[in-house]
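Item description
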Amino acid sequence: MGYGIMPYSVNINVLREPHAHASEPDVFLEWIQGQYCEGGEFDPTPESMRELFYNEPFTGEGHIYGYTLKALCEVFGGPLDNGHWYPFGSEWPGTVQAALTGVGVQFDPNDLMYSGSPVPLPRIDDFPLIGYVERKEALRLAAELDAADLSAIEDRSVAGAVTELHGWLKRCNDKPGDEYASYDLVCFYH
């Protein structure tokens, strides 16, 4: 076991108003609470889920809201493959960044952990760390990776991590006229 990044493709605008995207918000919230609020130390609580779902004031500890946001990413989006990003050591993001720079792509993988939450949350003192890339930036980075010669990355593990990241960014898309069918990248590190 170790620490790693859990990436999700999800529309950030939906995360900002989850209740507005359910035909019967109270029933949907009850279902989500039944699925994710299991009473474990790192599980959302019924209160944290309700507060994020309805944009109510926060009453609990910060880390619970990070895990609650992760649950909402699972409900409203989807997890992405992370085999090269879980688990990894502390030097891994820098190693991947050096490989990206070597093929002409300017992106710091630390942003996947340290850029913060895409929605307001109380301060999280420990885990999970949260980062995100909005779709416009994700599509720009995906295009840079499309144009890069990834075969120049000799280390197979690093090349796999770059390829996986490329897939995450490509999963973000922009469907003109249907804002809520478009996706951003939201990541959790724990």
Q: What stands out?
A: The longest helix spans residues 156-171. The chain has a mean pLDDT of 94. Residues 5-189 form one domain.
